[in-house]
Design a protein that fits this description.
The chain is α/β, with parallel strands linked by helices. The protein is built from twelve helices and eight strands. Helix 2 packs across helix 10.
Length: about 325
């Protein structure tokens, strides 16, 4: 009797099993193994770790300011400085839900800006974003301020890796949403939502003008690992800075471990979601096949009825109930 051969797991896969089961904390050597095995050279800017490190830290706030001005200055005015605010907002009352933002900052004018990165579709994301705006708004209201003079303007920009149901069937990938009145006139510019659908950007990339600032930034966020050194040298200094900040070699050991762990966890979650989707698709296909078989039975029953067969006989032959057969009389 021969033993069944099993596929040998790579070092990365074995480490992922151990990380997920919480048996180990990655050592620097294991981190380096994963980086080498996967050929990782650049941080993925769309990862949770990468997004917050590249755009949510004091050392890179000049890069963040450039990105925000590129997308939002028509509404915010030119931003010259930002202050990062704690991304965790406590509930307004004891027992109320906390909210956790990806990046939260305040401009030199006191305006609040929320920056979000969403890799997967989130149920009620727009509602969640409304809650974020509300928390940011109320955070500046002082006791006794009856005229609400200190209520700040709140802007948000959300980079969505998947398309949004709200914009289904529309090809554009940059959206700016204002509150509007019955005449479709802008009612207020003090709460503005920006949405970027990165999947639609990717689908149109070959036709886009990358000298346009918005397109260039989206290209940097989604293709930094594919850009050549020669191409980088022809870019503006702010993009060169962003490119260099993306190098994994710039991370210390703790940051490397945090990044690698986040990559492994994301891949594991994504594989689980893909598996669930495939099971769902197969269930849907089986439901479709069963419906097709049921329709064939009904059609056979209709033909037999037209030839005068008794409903009980038809039910026995087609496996339909007699009530189902009788319901087909008027068909």
């Amino acid at each position: 009797m021969t033993k069944k051969k099993t596929k040998r797991k790579s070092k990365t896969e074995s480490l992922l099993d151990e990380v997920n089961s919480r048996r180990i904390d990655l050592t620097p050597e294991q981190v380096d193994t994963i980086i080498t095995e996967r050929g990782l050279v650049f941080i993925d800017p769309l990862s949770d770790f990468g997004f917050k490190r590249l755009l949510g830290m004091e050392r890179t706030k000049d890069i963040t300011i450039h990105l925000l001005n590129t997308f939002m200055s028509d509404d915010t005015g030119v931003i010259t400085d930002i202050t990062f605010i704690s991304s965790e907002q406590v509930g307004l009352l004891p027992g109320k839900k906390k909210v956790r933002l990806d990046i939260h900052c305040k401009t030199q004018n006191g305006d609040h800006i929320i920056i979000e990165m969403q890799r997967e579709r989130q149920m009620f994301f727009v509602r969640r974003l409304r809650a974020y705006h509300s928390y940011s708004t109320i955070s500046e209201v002082k006791i006794g301020d009856t005229v609400y003079a200190t209520v700040p303007k709140v802007f948000s920009i959300s980079f969505m890796e998947k398309d949004m149901p709200e914009f289904k069937g529309k090809s554009r990938f940059l959206w700016k949403v204002y509150p509007k009145d019955d005449d479709n006139e802008i009612f207020s510019k003090e709460n503005v939502w920006y949405f970027v659908e990165l999947c639609k950007f990717a689908a149109q990339l070959e036709t886009l003008d990358l000298t346009d600032g918005k397109n260039h930034w989206l290209y940097m966020l989604t293709h930094v690992a594919d850009i050549s050194e020669d191409e980088v040298q022809r870019m503006d200094p702010v993009y060169q800075r962003f490119y260099e900040e993306c190098r994994i070699s710039n991370l210390n050991e703790m940051e490397k471990k945090e990044y690698v762990t986040s990559v492994l966890e994301y891949d594991d979650v994504r594989e689980s979601m893909m598996c669930e989707r495939e099971v769902g698709r197969e269930e849907g296909r089986e439901e479709g096949r069963e419906e097709g078989r049921q329709e064939e039975r009904r059609q056979l029953a209709v033909n037999m009825l037209s030839k005068g067969f008794d409903s009980a006989v038809i039910a026995e032959i087609t496996s339909l109930s007699e009530n189902e057969v009788l319901a087909l009389v008027e068909r």
